[in-house]
Amino acid sequence: MTAQLLDGRAAAEAIRTDVAAGVQAFTASHGSAPGLATLLAGDDPGSAWYVRSIGRAAKAAGMAWRDVRLDPAGGDTALRATIDGLSADTTIHGVIVLLPLPAPLSLGVVAERLDPAKDVDGITTASAGRLALGQPGLVPATPLGGIELLKRNGISLAGAEAVVLGRSNIVGKPLALLLLAEHATVTLCHTRTRDLAAVCRRADVLCAAVGRPGLVTADMVKPGAVVLDFGTTPNDAGKLRGDVDFETVHEVAGWLSPVPGGTESVTTAILLRNTLEAANRQVA
Amino acid sequence: MTAQLLDGRAAAEAIRTDVAAGVQAFTASHGSAPGLATLLAGDDPGSAWYVRSIGRAAKAAGMAWRDVRLDPAGGDTALRATIDGLSADTTIHGVIVLLPLPAPLSLGVVAERLDPAKDVDGITTASAGRLALGQPGLVPATPLGGIELLKRNGISLAGAEAVVLGRSNIVGKPLALLLLAEHATVTLCHTRTRDLAAVCRRADVLCAAVGRPGLVTADMVKPGAVVLDFGTTPNDAGKLRGDVDFETVHEVAGWLSPVPGGTESVTTAILLRNTLEAANRQVA
User: Fold this and answer.
1) Strands A240-241 and A64-70
2) From the candidate CATH numbers 3.40.50.720, 1.10.4080.10, 3.30.930.10, 2.60.120.10, the one assigned to the domain spanning A141-265
3) Which residues in B have their CB inside 8 Å of a CB on A?
């Protein structure tokens, strides 16, 4: 048996096409494009690369992109002023803050002050609360992209046993809540889980989001299971490595998302879709 | 084998004693007692009984209790004014809103507007977000009381397989997040779960919070497991019935919380403890 691939690039392409059409309609109706701001504090090269990539995608979709940079030396006072300014700016409908913030900046400033209506990567306390309570709100793009990848491949989640490895605020926990909202029976595993392999083997849908290349091996996968890989650890050559040992798991799983070209390919498209949705709600 | 009882009344008594000492210290230091407001909209007899019970417990602990009533006919406008008034009132440190709110009142008014610093039953969006993100905040009293009951009986959660039945915003989901924070491997089950008995039998710690009397039977319990019962369904005689079939499960489980006298006995004590903690933070 060989797994079918969960093709993130194809899903992203389809989402971007939909978003571009929506952006065109928004712009025709409101006389200006949806505005997306990225906020990069400091000069981390990986974050700078990601910012350019988001900017290119936003412009390709017809959005207005603002590339906001912040000197971390200004501290939380400057961060607060920047966040408050973006929250108040009616030409900006979505804000993406590159994480992690360098010292001495506090994530709490963003989590508590960014207007949740513009929180297109779902990192505010308000967005997390709405997701936890099942209320409408903006959801972190990476886990939402994973769910989208499953849906676009016709994979049903209701009643399925889903196992999530990793309990980060940005992938593991929101992913568990999204799977729960799709009526999966959800188990959250982490470094303290006993007999991780046995827990993983129960999964109809196995989601790995821990950042340990090759952690998930074939013996941890139920034959025919759906395996979503959220790992994106760069190796020495700069190539992304997933959490799943692709070569062996590919022989066991029913569906498998590759790295690169899997879940991480969908993230930016979902950020744009979240921005379009946010813009449409803000002008409604 | 016969289960040891998880005695909610004893735990509540111990918590109330600690709280009373803390209230005395607060009052000596600040010249006035911590203030707790209950807000009851409408005239549901169960809620009215619960309000009186909270008020008695608050006064017994030395707190100042305000019994706020609201005519639902005033709608969300009146609810908003009441919530904003309590949020602004410096003599009130904790606010408990009796749920469910009768029509036409919206829970969203409370969830979005009540000052999270005073949200001693953890029902606001901000409190839910903080719990989900692992930030300090106030946590719903019933699930927090369940964790407290385990801890006071020396039951270790790190690495344990915990299974939660029920995904309500007030018990199931916050309980899952609390168990996760204690480093349990957590599975959330619900009406769409396939083979519920098999999932439950995996549990080292089984938590039932669904409101279906007698749902959990002995065949669903691993011998020696810890079983926490959050069910409080009144029968025709007005007696509370738990989700666990006590007679049979008692022969299989290692620990079992009775109903009444289990988790529900701890809730009010935790509400008072949350209020004391909120008061201490508000004057800090």
Assistant:
1) unpaired
2) 3.40.50.720
3) 108, 111, 124-135, 158-159, 161, 167, 169, 173, 176-177, 180, 183-190, 192-194, 199
